[in-house]
Amino acid sequence: MTSTSAQTPSALPPEGAAARGSAPQRREARQLRETREARAPGQGPPRAPSRTGPPGRRDTRRPEPRRARPTESAVGSAVQRRREARPHHWFAQQLLLVLSGQRPAHTLLGHVRREAFDELTRVAPRAPLRPRGADRSTPEVVAVGAQQPRSGVVEAYARIVTDGRRQALAFRLELCEDHRWRCAAFELDGPRAVRERRRAGPAPR
Question: Compositionally biased, Basic and acidic residues: which spans (predicted)?
Fold first, then answer.
């Protein structure tokens, strides 16, 4: 007689195995659940947190230090040092500017003693070194010479080219109590100017 009872399978999956699924399925489900939890209601996908600090500097070079601009006092001090080192050169140029009418006489106020300043204000309006002929090029100091007969005194001369001709300018500088050089006297194309020019010899540059 043939048995009608159903044959029992030789092996059945353990209880709950179908619910758990395979490893790839579990990993996909976990990623989907984490995405849903991170998404706020009514909003799109989660955004990356905004950067609150400055961006990282990838350039390894150090920035060069900013160079400070020289102040007016520093520039004035440098000019003063050059003037003290070669006072006869500075005074030759300044006297030329005044005697050629390029600057007024009062620009030398404080740099010229009283007697010499009175003479300068008398001569300067005539502008004796101003070009008057066909050649109107700017007057120029072409040579300066000086000697020091004693400490604190400089006797100097300057050769000036103006209007196509040369003129001689002699002047005397004295070191005053405030340690500043001042012009004590000057003469243009006079006997003293010619004498000082010959006595000083070759003009130092």
Answer: 25-39, 56-70
pLDDT tens figures, 134-189: 767 889 999 999 999 999 999 999 999 988 889 999 999 999 999 999 999 999 98
- What domains lie within the chain, and their CATH numbers? 78-200 (3.10.450.50)
- Cβ within 8 Å of residue 204, ≥6 positions away: 144, 145, 146
Cα separation values, 129 from 59, 101, 133, 141, 183, Å: 62, 8, 12, 11, 18
Sign (positive or negative) of CA dihedral 116, 119, 124, 130 = negative
Instruction: Retrieve residue 121's tokens.
Output: 């204000």
Beta bridge partners of 147: 155
Q: pTM of the prediction? A: 0.55
Q: Which residues of 145-174 are buried (b: 16+ CB within 10 A; e: fewer)?
A: bbeeeeeeebbbbbbbbbbeeebbbbbbbe
H or E segment to which residue 158 belongs? strand 153-162
CB 171 within 8 A of CB 94: no
Per residue in 58-96, pLDDT (tens digit) is 666 666 667 667 676 777 667 666 655 689 999 999 999
Angle, CA of 155, 112 and 93, to the nearest 5°: 65
